[in-house]
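So, can you check these C-alpha cells?
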Amino acid sequence: MSDQQSAEPTEPTEDDIFEQKAVRLAKRAKLIEQRDNLAGGAYPVTVPVTTTIGALRQQYGELEADTATGVIAGVAGRVVFNRNTGKLCFATLQAGDGSRIQAMISLAKVGEESLAAYKELVDLGDHLFVSGEVISSRRGELSIMVDEWQIAAKAILPLPNMYSDLSEETRVRSRFLDLIVRDQARANAIARAKTNASLRATFAKHDFLEVETPMLQVQHGGASARPFVTHSNAFDTELFLRIAPELYLKRAVVGGLDRVFEINRNFRNEGADSTHSPEFAMLEAYQAYSDYNGIADLTQELIQEAAIAVSGSTTVTWADGTEFDLGGQWDRISMYDSLSAAAGVAITPQTPLAELKALAEKEGVDVPEKVATHGKYVEELWEHFVKGDLERPTFVMDFPVDTSPLVREHRSIPGVVEKWDLYVRGFELATGYSELIDPVIQRERFVEQAKLAARGDDEAMPVDDEFLRALEHAMPPTGGMGMGIDRLLMAITGLGIRETILFPLVK
C-alpha cells in the first residue's frame, strides 16, 4: 500500500491507519538498516539546521516570483503537504510556530538515488531536514531548492486531515495533534505564555516578590472548596492537594515579605464544566498596607496589561471574531444594592433568613439545608438575579460576612465584609479582600466554619492553628487577590476553559 497523500486527503479510517502504520514501520526499519547511506536513519541525534523557517519567512517573505537569493540554508519542519511528480517533488514544511516553507526536491539537484529514496521513504507527518538555496518559485512561493535532505524523525502514525476541523474531543484528548493542525491551538499556547510574562512584569513594576508555597499540605484551607486527599508513605500521614495558597502567602507577609505573589496549580475535587476544571492555574497576590480598593486597582492593571501583551490593545478579539473591550475604568457595584434593584425588594445584611428563604422558593433557587445561611442565600439569589447580566468587567463589592471567613469586616457597613468578586462575560474571574488580620476574630470565624463542616458542608474550612499562630505575631493591614489564569485566558480569547488549558484533565 502506498502512503503518499494528495493535497486534500480524506480522513483515514481505522483500517487505513492500521495499514499505514505497517507501511511506515517498514520504512522505519529500512531507514535504520541503511542509516549509513541515509544520513542517520529514522531518528538521528541531530540535524545540521542553520536557521528557522520563521526567520527565513521574515527575511525573504517578500521575494518576487522566480528569484534566487544565492543564500544556502538548512531548516527542519514537519511535512504537512507532499506531492511527488516525476523529476520534481514538492513538500511543505511546518515549524512549531506554524510558519511554513516549500521544499523542492529535484532530480537535477539531488540525483536519481536520493530522489527515489525520498519518494519511497518520506510521508506526511515526518520531520524533515532540507538544505539548499533560498528561492522564490515561479508562483512566488518561498522555497528551498534542496541539495540534500534527511529524515529528522519518522512518523509511524498518519496525520489527521489538515483541511478539516478536529472534533472538540480530539482537540482536548490529543492536544499534540491540535497543535500540529490548528493555528488557534498554537495561538492559545502563545497567548498563555504572553499572559504569564505580562503578569510577572506588572508585579515586578510594583516591587512584588514571586514566591512558591506547598502544593501538598497537612491541612487544606484558603478557600471554600472540597480537596483531593492523598497519603504520604514517608510521613505516614494524610495530605491534601492545595485548594489555595492563601494561608501560606499570608505567613510570608507576617514574616516581612510585604508584596508577594504566586502563579501555580490548585486542585479542587469538584465538578468540571465550561468555567471549572479540577486542576487549574491560580494567581494570588498580597500587598501590605493596601486594602480591597487598592488591590482592585492592581487587578484591573494586571488584566489590561495582559490583554495588551496578547492582543496589542485592551480591546481583544476573540477566537470567533467578536471584539471585547477590557479597557477603561471598570464599574464597582454593591452586592446587596444590585440584588435589591434586580429583585424589586430591599435586601440588606439584616434581612431575616425566613424572608430570603421565601424569595428563594418563589424564584426556584435551591440552597441545601446544610449550607443554608443568610450569606449563602444572598449569594445564590444574587447569582440568580444579577450575575447573567454582567457582560462588561465589573467589581461586585461587599459580601455577607458568614460566607467570607478570611475577610475583614467592612469599615462602615455592618454585616458585610470588604470583599469583591470580579465578573467578566458573566463568569467570576477574580476575587479580592481587605484581609482579616485580627487572630481572635479569625479563630472565631474558623470555629463557625468547623460547625458548618460538622453539619455536612464539604467545602467548609478547618481550624488552622498554625496559621493562627502566625497571625498572633501580627500581620500588617493587607489587600489580597486571587485570579484563575485559565479564566483570564477565557476573557482574553473568548474560549472555554478546556481550550485555554494546554492539557486539561479529561475522563
Residues 14-153 form a domain with the OB fold (Dihydrolipoamide Acetyltransferase, E2P) fold (CATH 2.40.50.140). Residues 302 and 324 are 17 Å apart (CA to CA). Confidence is low (pLDDT under 50) at residues 1-9. The chain has two domains: 14-153, 181-330+392-500.
